[in-house]
Amino acid sequence: xxxxxxxxxxxxxxxxxxxxxxxxxxxxxxxxxxxxxxxxxxxxxxxxxxxxxxxxxxxxxxxxxxxxxxxxxxxxxxxxxxxxxxxxxxxxxxxxxxxxxxxxxxxxxxxxxxxxxxxxxxxxxxxxxxxxxxxxxxxxxxxxxxxxxxxxxxxxxxxxxxxxxxxxxxxxxxxxxxxxxxxxxxxxxxxxxxxxxxxxxxxxxxxxxxxxxxxxxxxxxxxxxxxxxxxxxxxxxxxxxxxxxxxxxxxxxxxxxxxxxxxxxxxxxxxxxxxxxxxxxxxxxxxxxxxxxxxxxxxxxxxxxxxxxxxxxxxxxxxxxxxxxxxxxxxxxxxxxxxxxxxxxxxxxxxxxxxxxxxxxxxxxxxxxxxxxxxxxxxxxxxxxxxxxxxxxxxxxxxxxxxxxxxxxxxxx
Length: 413
Prior knowledge:
Elements: E1 2-6, E2 17-22, E3 29-30, E4 35-40, E5 45-49, E6 54-59, E7 66-67, E8 72-78, H1 81-99, H2 105-115, H3 120-128, H4 147-155, H5 172-180, H6 191-206, E9 209-217, H7 219-236, H8 243-256, E10 263-265, E11 268-270, E12 277-279, E13 281-283, E14 286-288, E15 291-292, H9 300-316, E16 329-333, E17 352-356, E18 360-366, E19 369-383, H10 389-404, H11 407-411
Parallel strand pairs: 12-16, 16-17
Antiparallel strand pairs: 1-8, 2-4, 2-7, 3-6, 4-5, 6-8, 9-19, 10-11, 12-15, 13-14, 17-19, 18-19
């Protein structure tokens, strides 16, 4: 019996998707629930699993096509996967026998298998530099090729000596002249990057954004973390990071200044009595903001565990739409990349976003003496339509006080 493989129901507010890549080709045997194809929306990458074991009989939509919910992508001939595997193996043997008559055919057949071990962002990078996936060794899980692997290959001596499909040895003179040529390259934005650009422009044009700054002395937080990080990890099975301190401090500050946790809807202000905190995560596809629900009710260990799980899902592309929506406040940490100071842009419809930055030893006057202290600049970008400067400044001061005396977090002072 033949089964139609269709585009699944897309997340709310998503109208269409782009077919990124097929992981199987016509004639391949597939197992039930095996991922057949990736669909990229402007927010997440969706996997389309096989509804049954069988053989992929026909592919109706090519890579790069735009599809909507319900579109038929392929036809699957239902059957025993073992029998299908045997048939596929027989077909493969015949094809290999024929391929021996043509040099290089085996290399051409290997490319799709290697490509299947790469993310859409990595495949685009390979295409931009005219590289075959078989040239790059993958360091990711299961031999998966990462962007770092590709960039490392490009910097290595091997990359300058390999030209896909060209059996002739490189010519140093011609390579040198090519290196001197000026050139341009035009690539299309990914759906996620285009959506990020759209949202950033929308935030700048529709909100009265203003940023206020403060600095925090992290001496006590670092001492507390160093004192208990080993026993914390042993007890809870997760590392004690800085983000849990900032998230818990921000949550307590939001309780004192509820307008910072609010959002604008037309001429109304929507106050939220819950604290769903978005944490910005850098991924191969771009910046994502997974949301941790009810942070005020979490322990430090629960927060760190949930953050590790949801950030991992964002980075490997398995995160769901419901995990990216509904936040009331966002925290972004440019400090992991060395940022000294920045003005983050609102994650609408939220009305405020907290920016963390790099920790640096700086001279500070403490009790009349100059001492070196681990200092961090904090930035709060807020919507001035509903948040006054007084509230924004006092909100940052509240976070500063909680972090400089972490015992306040336990006593909720």
